[in-house]
Write a structure and sequence with these properties.
This protein is mostly helical. It is built from 16 helices and three strands.
Length: 304
């Protein structure tokens, strides 16, 4: 006898029964976000995807609006120094994303005439673009059929299809296989499904406080039907921030973002009391290309 529990693609054979209720729920409850509006275009979608990685919507919204007002097209961003992208990134966190987005804008301008490509392979070849972002832009901006697997989608699929509370720490081949099995055949429906399943995970099937009473597929959810068994995988550690090198890096970058001229070492030394950690954080920023050292112990955001 075949053990179907090890193959998530077999665990839920009736994928079509999920599509209509989830998409209908999305049509009624989807948030009105600026990157979902037609005027956002592919560039607006791409910017949002970079910003939303590991960052909540509430923090992204004001920065996104300012970014698109300043750089409405990739060529506008590409024409400026990468340090300006880091400056405008503000406190979104993980500022290397700003450099990667600037690099993608340059490549789009040089290779594609300033238009975000619609071809998945061309998207994937852009600097800073991984499998998830390429699939998301192709799906959300161009209505193509791709499996879009972010944390929210993975959690919905883990619960509804495989009966476990949380997905693995890193995306697995089994999850990709499941996502492809659940993908509607028709392109427009597939793109809508990708957005709808993501929104369901963000608003209803959340990590800590799932609201099964509001879920359009609770009656088909393998995890709920199994009695919501507790997660038995590796320990899920929350990310700490206070006292970490990440916090020190953020404080150092804040000084440089707010400065109109290169900053002396003494101004950077003032932001953190522990000299070894402070030096390590600054060295890391330089190594990552986020800070440019000049002569005489002076630093600035990168110009090129």
């Amino acid at each position: 006898m075949t053990d179907t529990t090890t193959d998530p693609a077999i665990a839920m054979p009736d994928a079509a029964s999920l599509h209509a209720p989830v998409i209908a729920w999305f049509d009624k409850h989807a948030r009105d976000l600026p990157w979902r509006r037609p005027e956002a275009g592919a560039w607006g979608v791409m910017v949002s995807e970079f910003m939303l990685q590991q960052t909540p919507v509430s923090r992204v919204l004001p920065v996104y609006e300012q970014w698109l007002a300043r750089w409405p097209r990739p060529a506008d961003l590409a024409a400026e120094a990468p340090g300006e992208a880091v400056r405008a990134w503000g406190r979104l966190g993980y500022p290397r994303r700003a450099l990667r987005l600037h690099g993608a804008a340059q490549a789009i301008t040089e290779r594609h005439g300033g238009d975000v490509p619609s071809d998945h392979g061309q998207l994937l070849s852009l600097p800073g673009i991984g499998e998830y972002t390429a699939a998301a832009v192709a799906s959300f901006a161009y209505g193509q059929r791709h499996a879009v697997l972010d944390t929210n989608v993975r959690r919905v699929f883990a619960r509804a299809a495989t009966g476990i509370q949380y997905p693995p720490t890193a995306t697995t081949a089994a999850e990709r296989k499941l996502a492809r099995a659940l993908l509607p055949e028709e392109e427009t429906t597939a793109a809508r499904w990708a957005a709808a399943s993501m929104e369901l995970g963000a608003l209803v099937c959340t990590a800590k406080n799932e609201d099964c009473a509001r879920c359009p597929i609770s009656g088909r959810c393998a995890w709920r039907l199994a009695g919501k068994p507790a997660y038995e995988g590796p320990a899920r550690r929350g990310q700490t921030y206070a006292g970490t090198d990440r916090q020190v890096r953020g404080k150092l970058l804040a000084v440089l973002r707010e400065a109109v001229a290169p900053v002396e070492q003494a101004a950077l030394d003032a932001v953190w009391h522990e000299p070894v950690q402070r030096a390590r954080a600054l060295d890391g920023l330089v190594a990552d290309g986020l800070v440019e050292p000049l002569e005489d112990g002076v630093y600035r955001l990168p110009l090129g």
